[in-house]
Design goal:
Blueprint lengths: L10 H7 L9 E6 L5 E7 L3 E6 L10 H7 L3 E6 L16 H14 L5 E6 L1 H12 L4 E7 L7 H16 L1 H12 L2 H5 L3 H8 L5 H16 L13 E6 L7 H10 L4 E5 L6 H4 L1 H15 L3
Parallel strand pairs: 3-4, 3-5, 5-6, 6-7, 7-8
Antiparallel strand pairs: 1-2, 2-4
Helix pairs in contact: 2-12, 3-4, 5-6, 5-9, 6-8
């Protein structure tokens, strides 16, 4: 039985639930899916539920820098996606719609009827799938470092990344870091590169998981349907993003009539990590604005 979550319409109501309060202890849950996958999901904080969906890497840990700022205001949910981190792969085909179904299973497990949803990069595609197929479960959504339609840039980039993954997985992992972060931030945080190299997809099994995720994101195209998403929408990007360039966020914004667009001056593709304070402040302010209406 899903818990009914009352949407608060007035400014005063929203402000009252978003004042920092004593939060319940963080929960880590393991969610069994019908195809045999076992998902690890985290719930922290209290308030209106906020589901965070990471990108190609698929880890809950991607959002760790953001949790301290968001959890005093929201029940923050995040997961290791199937086959990633502490979640097992299962037997279902890896598609964007399946990954969206997995996120829906997380909401169901925590008895959440309606949530705010933030998806970064590939997580933006997953967010689109959720909002299109289950509009009653998404109260507002943010597509961060994401895209709306196929482009030659994305096709060519992922052709190169596939080759690197197969022939030099360490180079694949390290190049993701060099392309993903702005240079000044990376120069002060070399631990990110060291961690990526340590966790490079060396084994054939790990490479298969990454490859099928690349295939899923390249194949996904709901550009013709995006105008059907009617909940409040925010498109976020960074002007120096080399993986999903800012022109793709501008195109996505155009495919979402009535959406809001915010481009940071810098931060690289992984700006939720490199510009965490600006990212989380932007989210909280936009949530307040979108929930007024």
């Amino acid at each position: 039985m899903l818990r009914s979550y009352t949407i608060l319409r007035s400014i005063s109501d929203y402000s009252s639930i978003n004042m920092p309060t004593l939060s319940p202890a963080p929960r880590v849950e393991h969610i069994a899916l019908p195809d045999g996958a076992l998902l690890e999901a985290h719930s922290e904080g209290s308030g209106m539920p906020l589901l965070l969906i990471s990108g190609l890497g698929g880890t809950a840990g991607f959002w760790q820098p953001c949790v301290n700022a968001l959890a005093p205001h929201h029940q923050v949910l995040r997961l290791d996606q199937r086959g990633i981190g502490k979640s097992s792969r299962g037997e279902a085909p890896c598609t964007i719609d399946q990954l969206a179904n997995d996120c829906l299973a997380v909401l169901d497990h925590f008895e959440i009827a309606t949530a705010l949803v933030v998806g970064h990069s590939t997580g933006g595609c997953i967010t689109q799938s959720l909002a299109l197929r289950h509009p009653d479960r998404v109260h507002a959504c943010v597509m961060s470092g994401a895209w709306g339609a196929p482009s030659r840039h994305r096709q060519e980039l992922f052709t190169v990344r596939r080759e690197m993954l197969l022939h030099s997985p360490v180079a694949y992992a390290s190049s993701s870091v060099f392309m993903g972060y702005d240079t000044a931030w990376l120069n002060a945080h070399w631990g990110v590169l060291e961690s990526a190299v340590r966790n490079a997809p060396i084994t054939a099994a790990a490479q298969r998981v990454v490859m099928e995720r690349i295939d899923a994101l390249v194949a996904y195209d709901q550009s013709a349907a995006l105008s059907k998403i009617k909940v409040p929408r925010l498109v976020l990007g960074a002007r120096d993003d080399l993986i999903v360039p800012a022109f793709l966020q501008e195109e996505l914004h155009a495919l979402l009539p009535g959406s809001d667009l915010k481009l940071f001056d810098y931060g690289g593709h992984f700006f939720p990590v490199s510009r965490t304070e600006l990212f989380t402040t932007t989210l909280l302010e936009w949530f307040r604005k979108s929930l007024k209406h």
